[in-house]
């Protein structure tokens, strides 16, 4: 992937830029491992012009979690009532699934806040969409992505542009992708988390959708098993396109005998018969786009490139 080809903005995009306001950082899943991560995150975000505030329990610890269930629910409630527009998750891990039945989803939607995160935060993104139809964002987490001395510059820029409505088109190298030119509601995120919500009130019904997926630490056969579950549940047949992000952190074995992610992708194409777009810059990797879950977007491929139309502005 050549990072210089990741973003493509209209020449007049800057005229739609909003002045950065504020970011409120919460910990709703696993505990933050090192307080310095949130220190670095605040520095990098403030350098972009944002005000940044940490929730009072952002560094709380209870067992593997960022505080007890009650503490983490209270953090989400505080996020709805504080003045900053963006609510950024500190990290993923595990813990949000336990909270879903106790979150006031109507209040979350009515707050107008932009909730952003990835990995375990997929549960929040999809539950909000299923319960209210409101848009939230799959994107970086404060500690995971920005909690280092030198975070990925494009990840920071893409987050900033998405939060200030400057990102019109996301373009990326997508060699081997199927031909597609369509529109639909963008949804998805972490594959394992998405499948964990099947059969619950927190799994969105998205006909004619554009589904994007990523995962980490899952062998290709497990990835295929998740995809097979979605196919047999009738989910994949409803989609306009399937966009695959980064699948990382797994190890092949000798007995795989050539069975790898390419074999999974081949199975997916042959079985589901929907356009498959490859190499979305999203996953448990340093380079990560910020994507609006629940928003109608366009997707097209041409000459080994893929284009996501995020914001449609009509220039005079």
Automatic annotation (TrEMBL):
Keyword Protease: yes
Superkingdom, taxonomy of origin: Bacteria
InterPro entries tied to this protein: Carboxypeptidase_A_C_sf, Class_I_gatase-like, LdcA_N, Peptidase_S66_N, Peptidase_S66C, S66_fam
Domain LD-carboxypeptidase C-terminal: 183-297
Organism per entry: Paenalcaligenes hermetiae
Name of the protein: LD-carboxypeptidase
Domain LD-carboxypeptidase N-terminal, residue spans: 23-139
Keywords for this protein: Carboxypeptidase, Hydrolase, Protease, Serine protease
Keyword rRNA-binding attributed: no
């Amino acid at each position: 992937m050549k990072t210089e080809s990741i973003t493509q903005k209209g020449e007049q995009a800057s005229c739609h830029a909003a002045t950065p306001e504020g970011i409120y950082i919460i910990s709703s899943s696993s505990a933050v491992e090192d307080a310095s991560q949130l220190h670095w995150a605040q520095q990098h975000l403030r350098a972009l012009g944002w005000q940044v505030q940490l929730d009072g329990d952002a560094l709380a610890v209870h067992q593997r979690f960022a505080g007890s269930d009650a503490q983490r629910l209270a953090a989400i409630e505080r996020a709805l009532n504080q003045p900053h527009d963006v609510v950024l998750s500190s990290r993923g891990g595990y813990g949000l699934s336990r909270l879903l039945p106790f979150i006031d989803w109507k209040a979350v939607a009515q707050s107008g806040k932009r909730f952003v995160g990835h990995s375990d935060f997929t549960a929040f993104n999809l539950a909000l969409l299923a319960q209210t139809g409101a848009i939230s964002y799959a994107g970086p987490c404060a500690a995971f992505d920005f909690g280092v001395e030198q975070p990925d510059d494009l990840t920071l820029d893409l987050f900033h542009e998405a939060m200030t409505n400057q990102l019109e088109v996301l373009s990326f190298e997508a060699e081997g992708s199927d031909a597609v030119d369509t529109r639909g509601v963008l949804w998805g995120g972490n594959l394992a988390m998405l499948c964990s919500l099947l059969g619950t009130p927190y799994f969105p019904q998205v006909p004619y959708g554009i589904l994007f997926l990523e995962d980490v630490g899952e062998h290709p056969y497990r990835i295929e098993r998740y995809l097979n579950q979605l196919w047999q549940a009738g989910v994949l047949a409803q989609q306009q396109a399937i966009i695959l992000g980064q699948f990382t952190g797994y190890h092949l074995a000798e007995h795989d005998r050539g069975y790898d992610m390419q074999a999974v992708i081949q199975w997916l194409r042959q079985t589901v018969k929907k356009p498959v777009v490859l190499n979305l810059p999203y996953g448990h990797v340093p380079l990560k786009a910020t994507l609006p879950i629940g928003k109608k977007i366009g997707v097209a491929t041409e000459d080994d490139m893929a284009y996501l139309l995020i914001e449609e502005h009509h220039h005079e």
